[in-house]
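@channel anyone free to eyeball this complex?
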Amino acid sequence: AQSVTQPDIHITVSEGASLELRCNYSYGATPYLFWYVQSPGQGLQLLLKYFSGDTLVQGIKGFEAEFKRSQSSFNLRKPSVHWSDAAEYFCAVGLNYGGSQGNLIFGKGTKLSVKP
Amino acid sequence: DTEVTQTPKHLVMGMTNKKSLKCEQHMGHRAMYWYKQKAKKPPELMFVYSYEKLSINESVPSRFSPECPNSSLLNLHLHALQPEDSALYLCASSQVRGRGGEKLFFGSGTQLSVL
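replying in thread with the prediction:
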């Protein structure tokens, strides 16, 4: 069955430091992969997505993610974190077959805190 | 306009009340979604409408009744809810109900408390 695992529940980084959030997926076909960000009490905003092509994907707000098929991973990175990046980050797989086509399966999320 | 607007932002209701959540988008999107998000949990899909027709119902209890009166509006009618239904209810839209790669635009949600 398809699933998404975000191993880190909570990560704290210092402002200006680099960031990597981990995501592993389980899916039978080539997946659509997404990273969404959610600020407290708000909806989700798409940071980036991957389906095919270049395995390094650029997104908004200076984020990028790398798809590694051999590791079933899609980790999110940012070279220098800003205080405004503090939020909850969700990795998701988009289902592309069957009756649930178009549905997103979300990981449990990683909460990012930023120290000044 | 790239917004999905949800009203109300907060709602407190008793278990015998009837209330409705409203969602509106003017991006010409033909797929609209309701998600439920409990505290510190990821969103869970409830319903998907495609071209104003219900296409996915993720085994949601009948006390939640969705309605899509036109391509811009999505309602969620609530009746006889339970305290465990307290959650953030998120509406989203996409251009179409695609093959898994569609970008979803989310509203800010309605924070529902059932007493």
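from a first look: Chain A touches chain B through 26 residues (CB under 8 Å).
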